[in-house]
Amino acid sequence: MSETSPKLRAELEGIPTYKPGKPAAAGGPVAYKLSSNENPYPPLPGVMESVTTAACDFNRYPDMACSGLMDELSERFGVPLSHLATGTGSVGVAQQLIQATSGPGDEVMYAWRSFEAYPIITQISGARSVQVPLTPGDVHDLDAMAEAITDRTRLIFVCNPNNPTGTVVRRAELERFLDRVPSDVLVVLDEAYREFIRDPEVPDGVELYRERPNVCVLRTFSKAYGLAGLRVGFAIAHEPVAAALRKTAVPFGVSQLAQEAAIASLRAEDELLGRVGSLVCERKRVVDALRSQGWTVPETQANFVWLRLGERTLAFAQACERHGVVVRPFPGEGVRVTVGETEANDIFLKAAEAFRKEL
Ligand SMILES: Cc1ncc(COP(=O)(O)O)c(C=O)c1O
């Protein structure tokens, strides 16, 4: 037998691995997981019922076109069916977008630090990542991004609100940026946390997409709608882009369980958005408490807060675990903490206060 291994693509070397938020230890001292920006509420009974009914047929393939869900989305957002595409979570759709636009020799641009999947899915495609540092206030530097565009730029992610900082770009600055982007470069407005925004100056990407054929909006059912474990997200984009997304989709990627749960969730939107409202209240409580403890917390419009702790990041994350909450450290940079159930937030605030006193 030959000793050589199968030839793999050179681009895969050195790809950072996606670090999922650490789970809460079973039976251990840690009780709450605040490391993955999940929704802490359990599924609504009606959504659960739609999933259990769909489960009776999982010997069958799902509806590949996601027809029922596409109809609901088309109605809900007032967009034609031909402008919609679904995928296995919005990260799946983001990967489809890169596959559809970018390959070796091309550039994919995004702010950094931002959503950790961007460098991974860019590198897999063979394209080059162009990372534009956030401003000192942890906000997208849209002027620097516009200046970094070259004739090789194919796709630009604008993560709004930004993961992990929670910061936003507002209407005027985003429109000014979009005006500067060549019309053959795709701008992807990643709005995974859209439903948590309360700042009226933050534009709804769907409004921007309507006037601009090179704008695509990414949304997910994982956060506000609480379906992270079922993997379904979608894009709204003009026809050539949406059609390309359907070509690059994994066939049958979105399960029937996910499709039915998404439909049921859209129909239960009022109740789900009520839960989002409670989390937004908790967010304010957490941010206010942290600030009164003396922390600098960037303004967040998402379901998480960001503490720039630099070298103290890992020590802080360990201190949180000792108290009973798992947070998400980015070593050397900072900690992202999801706003969870009240008890979990209380534990986190106690941990933050104790850590602060020891500084
Ligand atoms: C900014 C952003 N985009 C996309 C995603 C992907 O979410 P999903 O694939 O669950 O839809 C996440 C998840 O954390 C995110 O933070």
From TrEMBL:
It catalyses: an aromatic L-alpha-amino acid + 2-oxoglutarate = an aromatic oxo-acid + L-glutamate. Residues 1-20 are annotated as: Disordered. Gene3D superfamilies: Aspartate Aminotransferase, domain 1, Type I PLP-dependent aspartate aminotransferase-like (Major domain). Homodimer. It holds the Pfam family Aminotran_1_2. This is Aromatic amino acid aminotransferase. InterPro entries: Aminotrans_II_pyridoxalP_BS (IPR001917), Aminotransferase_I/II_large (IPR004839), ArAT (IPR024892), HisP_aminotrans (IPR005861), HistidinolP_aminotransfase (IPR050106), PyrdxlP-dep_Trfase (IPR015424), PyrdxlP-dep_Trfase_major (IPR015421), PyrdxlP-dep_Trfase_small (IPR015422). The modification N6-(pyridoxal phosphate)lysine is found at residue 223. Residues 33-349 form the Aminotransferase class I/classII large domain. One of its GO terms (molecular function) is aromatic-amino-acid transaminase activity. Belongs to the class-II pyridoxal-phosphate-dependent aminotransferase family. Keywords: Aminotransferase, Pyridoxal phosphate, Transferase. Aminotransferase that catalyzes the conversion of aromatic amino acids and 2-oxoglutarate into corresponding aromatic oxo acids and L-glutamate. Its EC number is 2.6.1.57. It comes from Streptomyces lucensis JCM 4490. Residues 1-12 have a biased composition (Basic and acidic residues). The keyword Transferase applies.
